Amino acid sequence: MSFDLNSLLRAHILRLQPYTSARDEYTGKEGIFLDANENPFGSITSADYNRYPDPYQSALKEEIAKIKGVRSTQIFLGNGSDEAIDLLYRAFCNPGKDNVILLPPTYGMYEVSANINDVEIRKVSLTSDFQLQPDKILAAADDHSKILFICSPNNPSANKMKREDILFLLEKFPGLVVVDEAYIDFSDEPSFTTELDRFPNLLVMQTFSKAWGLASLRLGMAFGSKELIRILNKIKPPYNISGLTQETVLAAIQDKKKVDRMIQEILSERDFLQNQLEKLPFVQKIHPSHANFLLVQVPQANRVYDDLIKEKVIVRNRAKVLLCEDCLRITVGTRAENEAFLEAFRKVCS
Ligand SMILES: *Cc1c(COP(=O)(O)O)cnc(C)c1O
Predict the structure, then answer these.
(1) Residue 200: CB within 6 Å of ligand 1?
(2) Global pTM?
(3) Where is the Aminotransferase class I/classII large domain positioned along the sequence (predicted)?
């Protein structure tokens, strides 16, 4: 496939001379380090954090590469997936000139980040069963369409997109195709990382925030060609992942089995929640889920949402979102949390 990444890139980013940190200029580990204006005595805390962390997170990427089946040069790590989204806009989208294609209903950050970066948004809605409309997407695109964001499994609709539709768009879309797989661990769908060598215009995003239970650390992953990853590295803030995060995740990654156990438990709780909800006469629809949440339609969702809050149960109100009229998005909790939710839900809906 012919694809010229540099011609997609903003000209000033192509020319950009990136910041070189002290750790870029001297990469040895031994010596007396008087090059980064750090505190030589240690830290105010009992553990020491006085030295700047590895700006490229090499040790961590080696381990992520192993579990994800990619090369470490194909990995970008960001302060949450949101950082990767923002960097993509800044690298590829000229304000007032370029556009991106978004597929509502979907994750809100693609739109917010476009607005922050003053980039035109073209929306092509999903179908009523939340699938892609590939021909309409291509019809909406032009030479200035730099990025297409596909979220699969999708937030908030919980379904996965048809694989052949994504492959078709990877072949035909003129710009980058981002496949956001934040919820892939809860799906039986294989990751699009297996397609990286076939499609230089593909960027796959995943996160440590959901299945890994590390939302507070802020660590997002993006997988792409080494050329594309090099661009993101070139424009990122030098030390975007803290040393504490790098060390913590490096240690945690050895315990992949624990993640798999948590995923299995969340999936069985999702089944439990779904079965219980199916028994409730006021529930109009439970959308099929490949994620760790259920999108559920009830009459008067706004009122139900407010009444649930009075019962101290907080769900996400999606009632105003396109194609999600009267829907609440309910994250799968522990058994005790799910039962407490169900009790409150029955009470406010009866
Ligand atoms: C939760 C979520 C993310 C993860 O964002 P982080 O910044 O990594 O926490 C990304 N995409 C979607 C669609 C999400 O729902």
Answers:
(1) no
(2) 0.97
(3) 47-345
